[in-house]
Design goal:
alpha/beta, D-Amino Acid Oxidase, Chain A, domain 2, 3 domains, 7-stranded mixed beta sheet, binds flavin-adenine dinucleotide, Lycopene cyclase, FAD/NAD-bd_sf
């Protein structure tokens, strides 16, 4: 059995990003095996995220905008993003770009196989895929699924169905993506539509919910059809692509480093921001930090200051308000984006703000529901 320096279990967004960052580091000549059951040759998802600078994948960004639209309870209109750009990256462009880059490295091997087991051994991280054994100094696992069932935690889901549609008449504003449009029946929880325009007649329209219960396929479709006719004014259109997803919005603690030779990354490593579901940009930041630490110390972990852990508390409070329906979600998001500078709101979601900014931001939120949620989170986390 050949021993690798690193095995990357799951060559999706996090696995491929990690391999890419390793090739950009002094560890570029290490032997790496990437295992995935899928060949990643379909546009199975689209990632949107925001950043100020050009990122590692700037050359393949599909669209980017300096403002976004928001339709809430008391505000409807464009939000100026300041130095941030809201960017859209198509899955297929990312897979092709990274796979092409990685193929230039003879020390990187891809194998299409289904992973049956990952376990710790004294010799290293051990993987069985399609009944073949593999071993490495470190196994980076992006295939692990969290079991969301601990009562002290908040376990909501972000679930959505999106269509890329082509309309016969101009229906989209190419310069103005819609990050949240709450002009849909809230059904007692949190529901909105997300619209990413490609040009005047093509765009991604996504019906999204933050709650605990998935809908039937027909329910998502009815909401999409209604929105497209009522708010985009499209009478006839073709559905060119369909995107569906379920993202955990959970504060269940993830074991990022379950044992000496196994490290979980991506969604499996708890990289998803619990209060928003955004994962792409956090994964890039976390993996860059992980590779830097691996180069400097030989340890494949990322350094975290205890003070940044306050954002976990903020996420839990927000989830508690949502889960217990302590305040209408559409109004919370309206206050968040319309009563704060949008760039500050994005900076807060990036966990880059100072405490004083955070206090100012909290003051725009409804006091009683958030205070009740704060005490409820403390009680649940301490006593279950
Ligand atoms: C449709 C969709 C749209 C999204 N849009 C956004 C967005 O706009 N912005 C954002 O920030 N986040 C978004 N997300 C959330 C998140 O960024 C993505 O889910 C992202 O792909 C997570 O990266 P990952 O590497 O953790 O998981 P994945 O990209 O899913 O990679 C995991 C890989 O592991 C492989 N695998 C799993 N189990 C096995 C096994 N047993 N054997 C072999 N291989 C296995 C899979 O084939 C897959 O390739 C979206 C998610 C979805 C589903």
């Amino acid at each position: 059995m050949r021993k690798y320096d690193f095995i990357i279990a799951g060559g999706g967004m996090a696995g491929l990003s990690l391999a890419y960052y390793l090739t950009q580091s002094p560890l570029r000549d290490r032997s790496i095996l990437i295992l995935d059951r899928d060949v990643k040759d379909r546009n199975d998802r689209t990632w949107c995220f925001w950043e100020k600078e050009a990122g590692a994948f700037e050359s393949i960004i599909f669209r980017q905008w300096n403002q976004v639209n928001f339709h809430g309870t008391t505000h409807a209109g464009a939000l100026n993003l300041g130095d941030y750009r809201y960017k859209m990256l198509r899955g297929i462009d990312f897979y092709e770009f990274v796979q092409t880059e990685l193929q230039k490295w003879p020390n990187i091997e891809f194998r299409q196989a289904s992973i049956n087991r990952i376990k710790e051994t004294p010799q290293g991280g051990f993987v069985i895929a399609d009944d073949e054994p593999y071993i490495a100094d470190f196994v980076f696992d992006s295939t692990f699924s969290l079991k969301l069932n601990q009562p002290e935690n908040h376990n909501l889901l972000q679930h959505f169905r999106g269509w890329v549609i082509k309309t016969t008449t101009p229906c989209f504003s190419p310069n103005l993506p819609e990050i949240m449009d709450f002009r849909v029946d809230q059904g007692g929880d949190c529901r909105f539509v997300y619209v990413m325009p490609f040009d005047e007649t093509t765009g991604l329209v996504e019906f999204t919910l933050f709650n605990e219960q998935l809908l039937t396929e027909a329910d998502y479709e009815i909401a999409l059809r209604q929105y497209i006719s009522q708010h985009l004014g499209a009478v006839s259109y073709d559905i060119c692509e369909i995107e569906t997803g379920v993202i955990p919005m959970s504060d269940e603690p993830t074991q990022e480093n379950p044992s000496e030779h196994i490290i979980r990354i991506g969604t499996a490593g708890g990289y998803t921001k619990p209060s928003t579901g955004y994962t792409f940009q956090r994964t890039q930041r976390y993996l860059k930090a992980l590779v830097t630490n691996l180069v400097e110390t030989g340890k494949p972990t990322r350094k975290q200051s205890w003070f940044t852990k306050r954002f976990k508390l903020y996420d839990s409070i927000f989830l508690n308000v949502l889960e217990n329906k302590r305040h209408p979600a559409d109004d919370m998001f309206t206050r968040f984006y319309a009563e704060n500078r949008p760039a500050k709101a994005f900076q807060f979601l990036d966990e880059d703000t100072r405490l004083v900014d955070e206090i100012r931001l909290f003051m725009t939120m409804p006091l009683l529901p958030f205070t009740t949620a704060f005490f409820n989170v403390i009680r649940r986390k301490m006593f279950g």
